[in-house]
Amino acid sequence: MTIQWFPGHMTRARRQIQEKLKLIDVVIELLDARIPMSSRNPMIDEILQNKPRLVLLNKHDLADPAVTAEWVAYFADKGLQALPVDSANGNQTKDIMVRCKELFGDKIATQVRKGINPRPVRALIVGIPNVGKSTLTNRLAGKKIAATGDRPGVTKGQQWIKVGSEMELLDTPGILWPKFEDQMVGMRLAATGAIKEELLNIADIALYVVRYLTVHYGASLQERFSIEKLPDDPQDTDAMIEVMEAIGRKRGALISGGRVDLEKASLTILRELRAGKMGRISLESPSDVRQSDAR
Ligand code: GDP
């Protein structure tokens, strides 16, 4: 589900999160492990102020473990704990709970010192659409909670979901917008399926992906599509399009006359990437981010 974000939406989304912040102790910031920076809200620090925060790198099952480890170090450097998770299949509920309690630790210690039974730590999940907020909520709740939809305008009574006996979660997550004014961010979001590919030219997205794979995951790309040799210069667009055409031929994406249907080939590339058919792949590493910061 993709929201058309416009300034009014952003203001409302921000206000809704700030209302919720008053009720909670810890924020769970959900990012996509394959593109942690591109799946991050550009104003997150400002919106969350100084609330204790746990970063979860979701869809870790699809991301490159070595790159994810680099991201964990990157966030640690910035004073944030980041934990790789797989909300769809993994079970890291206990780990998440323990870390949230630790982040809330000082207050619990004060309560215990005063002879008060500590109340459960209250958490809020925030993240951009499709990052896995509902999946994680269901996972933490231990059962299926009805989806509430990605509609920033929708308000309803807040409900607390119990996560064991020591944690409570607000049932409606905070929905944030990505940094979509940056074209590279748009490519990465579209490549991972966070935004509808129709918003961009599908062949452009696939070209971006094939180029990134050629540079960083050449062997996986070659193996998946039986490509003997990849171009020496990944910046050579014509040569990259030839790779896409070779993939199209391999998958029977043809139009009359035996020519390759590049749009169909592009869809195949994206579908197989998202399904993890080329292995665990990250489309962004801390060094990519440092490079773009330096520009
Ligand atoms: P929301 O819009 O943030 O609530 O995102 P959803 O919870 O609806 O998840 C979007 C898609 O990502 C769904 O198809 C989920 O099944 C999938 N998904 C969520 N978490 C994970 C994960 O950790 N691993 C994988 N492979 N898929 C996930």
Task: Summarize the structure in words.
The structure is a single chain. The chain has 295 residues and is of the alpha/beta class. It folds into two domains: 7-175, Rossmann fold (3-Layer(aba) Sandwich); 201-289, Conserved Hypothetical Protein Ylqf, Chain: A, domain 2 (Orthogonal Bundle), CATH 1.10.1580.10. It is built from twelve helices and seven strands. The chain has helices spanning 7-21, 44-48, 65-77, 93-103, 105-113, 133-141, 183-192, 202-216, 218-225, 237-250, 262-274, 286-294, and strands at 26-32, 53-58, 81-84, 121-127, 160-163, 167-170, 174-175. Strands 1, 2, 3, 4, 5, 6 and 7 form a seven-stranded mixed sheet that branches. Helix 7 crosses helix 8, helix 8 packs across helix 9 (218-225) and helix 8 packs across helix 10 (237-250). The longest helix has 15 residues, at 7-21. The two termini are 33 Å apart. The mean pLDDT is 91. It binds guanosine-5'-diphosphate (GDP). Guanosine-5'-diphosphate (GDP) binds at residues 58-59, 61-62, 86-88, 127, 129-135, 150. Keywords: Cytoplasm, GTP-binding, Nucleotide-binding. This is Ribosome biogenesis GTPase A. It comes from Paenibacillus baimaensis. Residues 14-178 form the CP-type G domain.
